[in-house]
């Protein structure tokens, strides 16, 4: 096996603070005014809809909710007519939630049954819907929640963290989406759609500043280039200084949790006679600190923070940084062919990253570790992605008959090549490299699908679909430099998988009246086999060098619900109850006393619960939204056992009686990790008209998440507390919403909670984001 490229060997000079203005941000900042001028020449200026409509002083009209359009079924429909449990996140909710340079994890809890977490920080989000997700931290990990950005699947976990800006809408589709979206969607889909170019000149600029040296810029401008071509340029830049001090003198890092990030998107739209083409190029560049692990912050026998814990200070002796660059493009083409529309969607994505951290989280090594900053032994590792590319192609035909029956069908192709470097370092020897392994995987899949809908009566519409998928993986891993206590040098160790599957769904919507629909749906989903090859931390005696594999998982889901417009469209309700069964669910046992990562299949997992979405104008000036969900998950496998913690935690699961696996515990009956039973969110916006076209407003948002287990086994320490976080935004907009200035706060109560942990060394954990206070100015045109 060839050696990885030298630029990814983790030996580059380290700088404690590397935050500089990105060339990408400077280029975009220079481009926006030029685009503005060009668009003004070709199209007359037109104002975008104001953020808050001025009140009609001559005739009172009650405030009503606009129709919400979604593309959950690959075409534009009223959300109330779609037989799926769906939540949408409005543009104002996004603006508020992502104030203070928040990353995609800020969406956690903004929709019922949605959780997002990461042990990599901003670089590698992990999504969960209805409790189904994947806690695996390997760069090759697959997830059962698919993220679709501008109709292109983002398969690599590093692609899923692309910044949230200049979006048309966000949709959360719960339950299996195995027919129309297909790939790795047994839990659901989170769907992002960027604001598109148009012939109308419009855009916005937003700048902000906040605590911890925070600076943010976001903007977009678009309009006509010719009578056929239009374009839109969007950009984001955000920077935060370190807010955690390292108290260890002479350490490689003197501070943590800062970042410097830039992203941009350029789109061109051609609108011809019977043809439309939308072309997209996008890029992200982020550098900062990796996830900050903190040694012994959990008090033994409880899930409390230890006395004397100070979130602003830490003592670590390892190197810490996170560098990530992603870029890609897509071409979305549509032909109108009489009674049919033909679509072609071509996508290319690539990522390059290097993430290095002090995993033990301390600087003093004793047995047993009992104090803040103490660890059992040093652990310093890095994961790099020097080579990655993803190609997708879809062809889809959609009928456009005038009758009761319509259909759509197509072909989908996916190809991904990945090379991953895993490194180990000896912290006590000046962080010298002490281990190197390489993983390579080629994944190729194709699918054919068809879906139809039939208006059976004036009130009843039936839908159904089927998808056939074939998925192949060729995986190999080698240890080039053995790490202490890991597998010896050797390889390549190979795994080949080749599976196929048929997924399907069937649903119906019945209109009780013009304002109330009820629906029911049965759907199946599928996730292809997964392979894990973190050989530096594998059991030296394990077969095939320690490469582990999980077979396919399959899910069947049942749900029923009601969607209603109430009070003359002053309120909207969505309520769903569901039950799902997963056969052979893929699980990852990470850490533990043996410090290994092992893929497993559970015989069965079940989940059940409900979801509620409600929004209403309580008065003409007060809009309230409420989201709530209950998820009860359970692993059902009497013989499934995993290694518990190696850091002195209090395990509550029974010991495994099997003498072939001493020291393991049984996890039958446990809930899934990172699966909260309760998720709630609440927003309220009150506006007071001022003068002619002005408004003073107050917006508050709150989210609640109940306790979760961090790992497959249960223990007193590695279980989070409930977490409540609130936000507040107070501002004034004028000229009918064209301009706005606002003061905001995120996590305004400054709540501190452990949200994840490392269990092989000591009671190490990491915490949520701190309170941020800032000010923003926005101009829309």
Please provide a written account of the structure.
Mean pLDDT is 91; it is low at 1-58. The chain is globular and about 75 Å long. The chain contains 2 helices and 42 strands. The longest helix has 20 residues, at 23-42. It has one domain: TonB-dependent receptor, beta-barrel domain (Maltoporin, Chain A). The protein has 781 residues and is mostly beta strands.
Write the layout of secondary structure elements.
Blueprint: H1 23-42, E1 69-70, E2 77-78, E3 86-89, H2 91-97, E4 114-117, E5 126-129, E6 145-149, E7 152-153, E8 167-174, E9 188-194, E10 202-210, E11 214-224, E12 229-240, E13 244-246, E14 255-256, E15 259-271, E16 275-288, E17 313-314, E18 321-337, E19 340-358, E20 364-365, E21 374-375, E22 380-399, E23 405-426, E24 432-455, E25 460-481, E26 490-511, E27 516-527, E28 530-532, E29 548-550, E30 553-566, E31 571-591, E32 596-619, E33 622-636, E34 641-642, E35 665-666, E36 678-690, E37 694-705, E38 723-734, E39 739-746, E40 754-758, E41 764-767, E42 772-780
Parallel strand pairs: 6-9, 13-17, 20-21
Antiparallel strand pairs: 1-2, 3-8, 4-5, 6-7, 8-9, 10-11, 10-42, 11-12, 12-15, 13-14, 15-16, 16-18, 18-19, 19-22, 22-23, 23-24, 24-25, 25-26, 26-27, 27-30, 28-29, 30-31, 31-32, 32-33, 33-36, 34-35, 36-37, 37-38, 38-39, 39-42, 40-41
Number of strands: 42
CATH architecture heading: Beta Barrel
What is the C-level CATH assignment?
Mainly Beta
Please describe the biggest sheet, giving its number of strands, its sense, and whether it closes into a barrel: 22 strands, antiparallel, barrel
Whole-number mean pLDDT: 91
The helix-and-strand class reads mainly beta
End-to-end Cα distance, whole Å, is 55 Å
Overall domain count: 1
Which strand-content bin applies to the residues? over 45%
Using the coordinates shown, work out and report the CATH topology.
Maltoporin, Chain A
CA radius of gyration is 26 Å
Put simply, the count of helices is 2
């Amino acid at each position: 096996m060839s050696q990885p490229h030298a630029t990814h060997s983790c030996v580059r000079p380290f700088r404690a603070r590397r935050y500089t203005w990105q060339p990408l941000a400077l280029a975009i900042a220079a481009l926006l005014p030029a685009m503005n001028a060009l668009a003004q020449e070709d199209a007359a200026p037109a104002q975008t809809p104001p953020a808050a409509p001025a009140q009609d002083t001559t005739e009172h009209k009650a405030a009503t909710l606009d129709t919400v359009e979604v593309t959950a079924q690959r075409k534009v429909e009223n959300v109330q007519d779609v037989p799926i449990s769906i939540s949408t996140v409005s543009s104002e909710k996004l603006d508020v939630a992502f104030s203070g340079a928040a990353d995609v994890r800020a969406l956690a809890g903004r929709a019922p049954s949605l959780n997002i977490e990461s042990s990599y920080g901003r670089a590698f989000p992990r999504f969960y819907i209805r409790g189904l997700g994947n806690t695996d931290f390997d760069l090759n990990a697959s997830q059962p929640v698919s993220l679709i950005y501008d109709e292109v699947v983002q398969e690599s976990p590093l692609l899923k963290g692309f910044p949230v800006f200049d979006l048309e809408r966000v949709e959360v589709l719960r339950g299996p989406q195995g027919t129309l979206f297909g790939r790795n969607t047994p839990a659901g889909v989170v769907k992002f759609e960027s604001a598109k170019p148009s012939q109308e000149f419009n855009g916005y600029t937003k700048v902000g500043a906040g605590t911890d040296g925070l600076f943010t810029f976001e903007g977009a401008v678009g309009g006509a280039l010719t009578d056929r071509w239009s374009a839109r340029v969007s950009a984001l830049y955000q920077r935060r200084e370190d807010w955690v001090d390292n108290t260890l003198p002479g350490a490689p890092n003197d501070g943590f949790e800062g970042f410097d990030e830039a992203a941009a998107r350029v789109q061109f739209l051609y609108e011809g006679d019977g043809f439309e083409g939308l072309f997209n190029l996008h890029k992200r560049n982020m550098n900062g600190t990796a996830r900050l692990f903190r040694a012994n912050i959990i008090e033994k026998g409880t899930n409390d923070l230890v006395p004397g814990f100070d979130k602003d200070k830490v003592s670590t002796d390892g190197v810490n940084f996170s560098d990530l660059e992603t870029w890609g493009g897509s071409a979305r083409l549509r032909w109108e062919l009489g009674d049919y529309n033909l679509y072609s969607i071509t996508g290319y994505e690539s990522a390059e990253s290097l993430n290095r951290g002090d995993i033990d989280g301390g600087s003093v090594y004793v047995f047993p570790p009992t104090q803040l900053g103490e660890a059992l032994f040093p652990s310093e590792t890095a994961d790099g992605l020097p080579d990655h590319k993803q190609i997708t192609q879809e062809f889809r035909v959609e009928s456009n008959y005038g009758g009761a029956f319509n259909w759509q069908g197509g072909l989908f192709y996916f190809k991904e090549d990945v090379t991953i470097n895993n490194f180990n370092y000896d912290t006590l020897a000046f962080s010298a490299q002490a281990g190197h392994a390489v993983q390579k995987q080629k994944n190729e899949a194709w699918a054919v699908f068809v879906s139809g809908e039939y208006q059976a009566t004036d009130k009843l519409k039936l839908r159904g679909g089927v998808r056939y998928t074939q998925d192949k993986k060729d995986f190999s891993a080698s240890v080039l430099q053995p790490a202490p206590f890991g597998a010896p040098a050797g390889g390549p160790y190979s795994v080949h998988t080749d599976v196929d599957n048929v997924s399907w769904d069937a649903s119906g919507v019945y209109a009780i009246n013009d304002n109330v629909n009820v629906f029911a749906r049965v759907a199946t989903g599928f996730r292809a086999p997964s392979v894990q090859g973190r050989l530096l931390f594998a059991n030296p005696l394990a077969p095939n060098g320690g490469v582990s594999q999980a077979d396919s998982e399959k899910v069947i889901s049942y749900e029923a619900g009601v969607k209603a417009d109430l009070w003359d469209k002053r309120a909207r309700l969505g309520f769903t109850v569901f039950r799902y069964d997963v056969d052979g669910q893929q699980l990852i046992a990470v850490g533990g006393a043996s410090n290994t990562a092992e893929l497993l299949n559970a015989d069965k997992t079940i989940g059940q619960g409900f979801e509620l979405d409600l929004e209403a104008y309580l008065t003409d000036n007060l809009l309230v939204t409420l989201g709530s969900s209950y998820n009860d998950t359970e692993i059902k496998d009497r013989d499934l056992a995993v290694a518990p913690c190696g850091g002195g935690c209090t395990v509550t699961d029974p010991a495994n009686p099997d003498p072939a696996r001493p020291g393991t515990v049984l996890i039958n009956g446990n809930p899934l990790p990172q699966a909260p039973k309760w998720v709630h969110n609440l927003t309220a916006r009150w506006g007071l008209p001022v003068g002619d076209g002005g408004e003073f407003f107050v917006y508050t948002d709150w989210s609640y998440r109940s306790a979760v287990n961090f790992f497959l086994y249960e223990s007193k320490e590695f279980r989070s507390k409930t977490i409540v976080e609130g936000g507040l935004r107070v501002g004034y907009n004028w000229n009918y919403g064209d301009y706005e200035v606002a003061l905001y706060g995120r996590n305004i109560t400054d709540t501190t909670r452990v949200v994840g942990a490392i269990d092989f060394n000591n009671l190490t954990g990491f915490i949520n984001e701190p309170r941020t206070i800032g000010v923003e100015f926005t101009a829309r045109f």
